[in-house]
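Pasting two entries for a bug report.
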Amino acid sequence: MPYRDLPHFLEVLDSKGLLRRVRTEVSQDLEIAEITDRVTKKGGPALLFENVKGHSIPVAINIFGTNERMALALEAESIDALPERLSSFLQLALSPPTGGFIEKLKTLPKLWEAASFLPKSVGGGPVKDVVKKGDEVDLTKLPVIKCWPKDAGRFITFPMVFTFDPETGRRNVGCYRMQVYDARTTGAHFHPHKDAARHVRKAKGRMQVAAAIGCDPAVCFAGTLPLPPDVDEMIFAGLIRQEGVSLVQCETVDIAVPANAEIVLEGYIDPAERRVEGPFGDHTGYYSLEDEFPVFHVTAMTHRAKPVYHTIIVGPPVQEDDFMGYAIERLFLPLMKLHLSEVVDYHMPYEGVFHNLMIVAIRKQFPGHARKVMHAIWGLPQAMFTKMIVVVDEDVNPRDVREVAWKALNHIDPERDMEFVMGPVDILDHSSRLPGYGSHVGIDATTKWPGEGFTRRWPDELKMSPEVKAIVDKKWREMGL
């Protein structure tokens, strides 16, 4: 059965001993963040702060902060064994068949499966328990947290932001932070490469926006996925839940939002209006600097009678979003293999903060194969931001960083095996020469072939003989070592 809402998921976590209720009074400014940072880094439980100074609304955080809880959120046995239906849907959505009629017929069962989990319109829901409009709205009544000392203020860090393409009408749901400026105004941190920013650029006048806070796990996860513009995150959430997401119409804007959300903010963005947002302690482990971004004017706020405020902190690894990123990595592995059949596995270590490092193991088949893979990855929508790609042979486990370092450093001649290219980089990369534009490096750490100009004999790796290993295996217990 799918999780009905956030409280249902918290109940399940509690029943499994994976949730800690914190009754000690804490401040929303820095204290919640410091406590959460310590707990996450030691692999601790999800947290529900029930006594936030000056507020009656509890704060839920770190609910996805281990692989175990992330798998539980996706109703999977483990992150490494995500349901096949999810990757199948992604393959269908991102790589539609271009063959003949027979090939298209083969996709019908998957299309039918996806159709059964389409969003459902409902007339009401818990998020409509309390409705506030205009001057009644006061964002300061929410326990919005300040995460790091030099943050420009308090930030809503885990909203599911609903926008629509002004030309096509297609929905996009993304997780974009929102700096609270005052009672009815926030920033809208839409990166230039993101769909919401594209919608703002297309808008001819005021653009309607809604932000849902405290959604069920499937909606939260779907909103963080790097899906292309034509793929509806709410359909994917329904696929995770095995049941369509119930959507209810907003009060002041023509947008449907999750009826089971804890809190919804409604309003608009004027494409001509910008305001300085930031700095903000970001997932890179550094502050993203202040810059001008769109402004979100809140026209209404609806919420449950007793809402839970759901938030997240990001910063130096390990953080909660690392486990979400790992789930995304595993989810997209079949799709990576579909585009690049030579890929055996890949990994983006937490310390690479998603966009700085990708390690790819390939089944090498011809000279220059590693470079072909590098350029193909830089040509993929979200992978184009990857600063460093290290390509290793298929016998190397990309998730074993010690093995990767050993093999890679033994396999490379730096001048021969490193390739630099220019292209788009993550807007949060503070080291790039220009915002959003800089260099990338690919490292061919595979075994070198004569066809790649290697004229010497590649040495054999040190391995004990199978015969000796078998003899020692028999004596091992007897020795008590």
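Entry 2 (this is the one that rendered wrong in the viewer):
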Amino acid sequence: MSEKHLTNTPLASLDLPEELLTGISQAGFIQCTPIQAQTLPLALAGHDVAGQAQTGTGKTAAYLLAAMTRLLRHPPAATRAVNQPRALIVAPTRELAVQIHKDAELLGRHTGLRLAVVYGGTGYDSQRKQLEEGVDILIGTPGRLIDYFQQHVFDLKAAEVVVLDEADRMFDLVFIKDIRFLLRRLPKPEKRLSMLFSATLSFRVVELAYEHMNNPRLIQVETDKLTANQVREISYYPANEEKIPLLIGLLRAMSATRTMIFVNTKRTGEEVQAYLEHNGFNVASLSGDVPQKKRLQYLSQFEKGEIPILVATDVAARGLHIPGVSHVFNFDLPQDAEDYVHRIGRTARAGASGDAVSFVCETYAFSLPDIEKYIGHSIPSVAVTPDLLAEVQRPSSIRRHKPEGKRSGKSQGRGRSEGQRRSGRARKPHAPNPSHGSG
């Protein structure tokens, strides 16, 4: 861990219970990160906090330590039922909810606090049973939380702490009505500790904070530069048919240990995975419709290093803390500038360094000006030279794409142009064209 990532404030110097200090020590944490140093003293003193910091800077530990301290030092009322959580933590995605639960288990292993995580896609009956048996800290995604709430599996009358993580993502995923539904079922803001954290604090998020929190203190860390200093950003300008050869050439040339490759569509992700596998790479693909059990399996294997390359749509761009991601590739430039920040934030976490490589191709080049305006600097570019382009073996599962323009006749549907049919030769198949990847 880089020393620049940390402050001079030891975690042990904060007013934390002994049970938490033991868990912190066993987890190997010693110094506060900047967001922890600024928000923890406020939250421990009972002040509501809305915090902004770059991804990977310790926001999760900040609110978990504050929430657990509150619960340990304020015994529950004798009338509280076991299925009434004392703390509610809401996350926009299943992957982030699972990660928060994992961090809570690590930090709170000596507290005796009962943890539960609920999310859609799997485990409906087992999650429900866990709630019925008792929970102190409930972590979940909005849809599954509201489902159980409306069935009276739990209620929020005894909640003393509420946390919204990645609050801006709640707006992006149209969860804001669900969030307000849950917030309005909690005790009044002055009777609970409320914390809101995000990598970006937009006007809408701040408005939400002031509407449902008790005079929150706004804490912003490193807002002058949205991308981490330890990320080495670089861009290439390939033609669409050069993207796969360039990707494979760079993967072979770079000393990448754990790599994430971001695409804009499921179809492009499947094609990239097929090409990589056929050319000798061990890779998995992650998109929104991959079954939850398999998604968690892929993430676990990726984190353990069993799968060194993960191809993903933006479902994996936020909230995941996977140590040791050395390289992030934007195979497709994101169409939302904020997603660029969250994608490359998967590397250079916790003070480490990393590389972010972006392909500015014919299809998505229009996104670059907005991205550079948003991040406040230009992304350095490198020329695409022949030595960077690998010889690529086409997997049999990939069909040749139909040519652009008008299509007429049955033979045109076989994916060869008129001139190619006359000569009897098809185009040399190199790579998928992302412009066709809208499936």
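Dev reply: Rendering is fixed now. As a check, the viewer should reflect this: Residues 400 and 429 are 7 Å apart (CA to CA).
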